[in-house]
Amino acid sequence: MKDKIDRNIIFNSDWSYKNRAKYIDIFKKDKFELIIIGGGITGAGVAREASLRGIKTALIDKNDFGFGTSSRSSKLAHGGFRYLAQGEFKLVRESTTERNWLRCHFPNICRPVYFNFVSMKGGKDKPIMIRIGVWLYDFLSDFLSKYKNFGKHKILKPEEFSREEPTFNQKDILLAGQYFDNNIDDARLTLEIIKESVALGYTTAVNYIKALDYELKDGKIIGVRVEDMETRERFTIYGDQVVNATGIWADDLLKNQNNKIIRPTKGVHIMIKRERLGNKNAFGLRSIDDGRVFFVLPREEFTLIGTTDTDYQENFDEPWCYKEDCDYLFRTVNVMFPNAHLTYDDIISTYAGIRPLVRDEKAKKESDVSRKHVIIESENGLVTIAGGKLTIFRKMGEDVIYHLIKKKNVFNKKFTKKQLKKGFSKQPILIGLERNEWDEFIKDKKVNIDQDILEHLYRQYGRGAFEIVQNIINKPELGKRFIPENQITPAEIHYILKYEFAPHLIDVLLRRTEIQLKVHHKKQQKIAEDVAWIMAEKYGWTLEKKQKEIDNYMNYIKKTIWF
User: Fold this and answer.
1) What pTM did the predictor assign?
2) Buried b (16+ CB within 10 A) or exposed e, 328-337
3) For 537-547, how does the pLDDT look when each residue is reduced to its tens digit (9 = 90+)?
4) What is the CATH number of the domain that holds 378?
5) Residue-range definition of the domain harbouring residue 205
């Protein structure tokens, strides 16, 4: 591998759904050094680590990339402030340093935001603990670290805090601690890491490929029997090593029903207009019902509220936000923001996800289960990565690759000292874009595009925004909004269909974009129809196929709204 990678290779790939048959043929004909099952952020992280080291890799998922937890999180790159109270100092150190690297090398998608943690009279969070907590959080993040946090913590007196957050309940405030973490788009992060792995030339990645069983020789896995969920064709992908990175589905791949390793817990989120709360920054709030911590997160003109944390044993493919979940969150928010009086009418959207926590018999409450990750090796050679959290995806991927190289020695090749060095993959993300480079581009092009659209494109697409803007300049009609209050334009959809392997309308509206999240549920039908027309033209869909895609998406939307 070259020491410096041409960042433009990200746009040289033909990784489009239109070329899916070509990639399926590669799966059938080639033998791989590594097969990764699971196209969430964990599998993506393993694929990037492998590709940076020249390991020929196959990456598959039974659904879309990021279908599970990796598109349904709190959408944060964070260190886990609340884990300090559980004594998880090593985990916080690991998470904060990974967060800092990601912010430095993926600045467009990783947006710093101040978090408020408030100490109130009679509350569980004492002033001394808040003071120690925010100091320790920054110390663990920055001490002897190459990459530093965006800014330093602050302690605000009641009068200072009331000026900064006037809509928050001012009664009985003792002080507020402030620290930095970061908003991200979790599904976009997952996708860009996969795109980079493919662009590096060593990973073949296809979604909607389901692992059915293993091909064995002398008791060891030599391949994965799969089914193409688009065509229902079955075939085998052969490889030297298989990694199970399926998150909440890990036990299905382990096929050990007596000793399950995953404790799935459900978390729900609710999106409202930010003006309804008036929060300037993010908050960590303790529920007035049970004392659990959840977030109030500013995301542009919106506020995201969540998450809950309850054990879950229903359909992993279809977790939903129910009335009782919403009521649980709204009860506390309406106390802490007394002028809000939130009701169901304020809901823009909802979603629910499942955390793939590693079982801990000592943890009685769901929120007490550690977010540590573990690597498990089965007798048949399967290596499973389980647990962890989105922020440390790079570290989890690195740990898997080191396990394979150093403990199993499954790759018949020689790695350089640099490739074997810890932190080797802490390189810039290819698609990442610094703000000053973007500003210069806009200035040089003399772009006549609404500022909020430009901000959106920079934030979501990084270097990819250059091409989207150029396409709007060439064809101004591609820059016309689908709906007035949202920044999404046809140019963005064309870019996605060209580079981002999106077979279905629901893939585009849920994971390639944040349309489901940020467009009011009552306006989803129109934007679904408009985007479906573009996809029908690009993919050659019949009218029947187009309508089926719209109906499938709208059925999903109906299940997210219970009232």
Assistant:
1) 0.96
2) bbbebbbebb
3) 999 999 999 99
4) 3.50.50.60
5) 7-69+188-261+371-408
